[in-house]
Amino acid sequence: MKSIRRGQHLITIMLLIFLIGFGYLIYRLQRDSGFYISHASSASLGCVYDRTGDVLFDPHATAEDYGGDHFVDVGNLIGDDSRQMTNTLVSQNKAQLANFSFMLGEQKDGKAAIHTTLDHSVNRKVYDAFGSKDGCAVAYNYVTGEIYVCLSRPNVNILNRYNDLSTLKEGSLLCKVFYPTVPGSTQKISTTIAALESMGYETLCSKRFSCEGVYNNNHSQLIKCHHSDGHGTQDIYDAFANSCNPFFAQLVEDPDWTLADIQKTYRSMGYRVNGQGDQGYLDINGISAYTASTDVSDKDDFDSQWGCMGQGTTLVSPLQMMVWQSAIANQTGCATMPYLIAYTNSVGGDRINEAVTRTGSEMFSARNAAYIRDIMLRNGKENYAEILPGTDIGVKSGTAQVKNGTEENSLLTGFVDDKDFPVAFCIMIENRVRGEVSTSDIAGVMLQNLKSALEE
Amino acid sequence: MYKNGLSYAGVVSLLLLTHASMLGIVLVRGNYESPKDLIMLACAVLGLDLVGIIASLCYRQMTYTLDLMLLGILNMSLIFQSCFGGVHLSVKFLITCVASLISCEIGFLLTRNHEWIRHQKKYIYLVIGILIACILLFTGGRSMWITFKGFSIQPSEFIKPCYILVCAASIVELHKKIKVTFFYVSPDTLCVLGATLVIFGLQWWCRDLGSLPTFAAVFACAVVCRFCYPRAKISKTWIAVAAVCGVLVLLAAWKLAPAYVQERLHVDIWADQYGSGYQQCQALIGIARGGWLGLGPGQGNLHKVFAYESDIVFSTICEEWGLLYAGIAVLIVLIMLTTVLMNPPKSYYHATMTAGIVAAFVAQMSLNIFGSCNLIPFTGVTLPFISQGGSSLVTCGFMVGMLKAGQSPLFRHKAEKLREDAAAELPSLPFLHKKNSRKSLGNTPQNRRPKV
Fold first, then answer.
1. Which of B270, B288, B375 sits opposite A37 (nearest CB)?
2. ipTM summary value
């Protein structure tokens, strides 16, 4: 009989295993049902709002209700449920937006909603400020992480239901803030941080390099300066403000630091160096944003030096450039992680999923953050004071050669040195031609309007 | 004697209440074009209930739980199947339900006497051989289905109970060994191992790998039972060797599985929502849409997805009826399987047989439910008692009959004691007492015997 009892035990074990599995299945169905329903072809979704309650997405929106171009500045950021765009707020957060609960099933008149940190009014003004130019702009609170402005041109008007897909300009369906671009001389921020980390502030400040308009490096390759007459002998402050290529080429070659030092700081800042390791991405409420990558294999070689000045194979997303500003502005060396969703409403209308400020790990020391901040603030004071009169801003501009040097993108990244208005930003204008709207013009529109909006 | 858990009246009331409530839901929330459809369904369900209850009353009854549970789950399935995509009586399913109930009785009658069925093993091997031959000769290529004039039969389903029986027989007779050169081997063990290899090979060849885990579960269960057998005298070394061999076989199967199986093992269904993950994604979306209470009978969308009534039937039920009713259906099957814990078998043959049946049902339910819900790789097997498929339902019925038989074996030398026990038990069954009291003393050795 003992053996029969063992058989009974075996049956009990089998039934228990099944019951445990079934229990786990119910738990998973309960937990993930929102995700499942978000993949349904006809899910009932709620609206997305900006920080003032203005609608950024309405599944039932029509041109008559909102005006023909109400969503034109946020089309490729907020997106919609059409599956035409995948890396957007709506497509990545359909589970939270779905009017659905597992207990009651689908609720056509549910109150599910997403409330974002964006300021639609300012966003639209910045969008318009680009005029006919394409590019992108992003700004956030470097203390809390709230993204106030995020736009990309060209954009898509979701009210047109993609009837004009064939006529849409290239890049309309993605928000360039999250995608890699050649950073140009804004890369010199990273290179200066790497130099500070490796050789220290005093040593770096003691360095003097001469610019004659062109520099013949250790491999006898020419590094040209944008100022063909040359900047003369400069220290790091002057060279940073002048964005002097020969200075930075000589700095990279300097024997007081090694190739490994540069690579180490780049890696800790989030770069993928020389294709080693996995490419990093930032997660902005489900939206995936490229971090940075570069190739630096020989300090004396043109390509590596060119990469350290933000040309060649170096790629950084505008969002990442902005995030680095938080680590500088906060003088901590740690980035404040940006977010778009302030909170959500459940199907019943309850306020849930309140955003929490998160800080990244230390990328560089707080002391060096303070030094680079000082360098950038001096540049802002001397060259960009008109952007936000009466307030100090730290900035670095850049010109990136793209399409084999046939076009140049203009970039500007920086931060506002104001406790009551702690904003970091990054702006890029594609194929900018002298005389057209500049990045500092757009920065002025963005910061001045944003300051007014936040003070209201 | 049998323990039934609930009184006869209680089980019958629960049965009727469940079906009546489901028909009520169809009336209120169902998607039907005319009341005629609903009336036909109600007549079929309640009629089958009535016939089943009357038939059970006609027998001298010592057990009723399994019979009524089988009737209950089959009628639930009839309602489910008749409502997918719109209410209309599924006559085909009704016929297979009746066949399943008859099959249950046949299974019970054939296997209740463990001494007798044990000695029929050569005929069982013969049946397995015939079924395999049918698969090889009549299925037309590497398939498991025989199609004849619109009807499809899956002979491999019928192999399941036969395989369980030969596994049980081999264990009871494993002490009968013969000397081959230097080794003592049990011919029965060799036979069952041979049958296992042939069945597994056939499944592999026919690319019906979905059913393979079910047979593997029965085999594993038989191996464990063999270790538990008092006369086995198996050393720990042999147990360890068997475990290692099992793991190696699993690893080999994992590596050598065909491309389509490998794909299912590694597919990210949401990344390929409209490709190889389509069925599972739609199944999970369907469950989510249904929630706990469902969209209403016939109101779902899953009936547009391939194999909605068989491979992903759990999700189809969840979508239309809610997880609540799908859970009740699963619970009823589990209760059927737990009756064997209330009435332990009296012989080792029946103990091994019932363990094998539970293993087969649990494996198949797990494969279907957890597979369609993406907890494990999707295999595409039927859900016992619920999925559409005549072969599956008839086999399930037969195995329930075996399960019932396994709970009350007939021992000649205990006939007198059984008779006394039966006489003591019967007064507690008021439904049956009046009818059977005069005859009960003369006929009680069998737990259930038709009137002659």
1. B288
2. 0.86
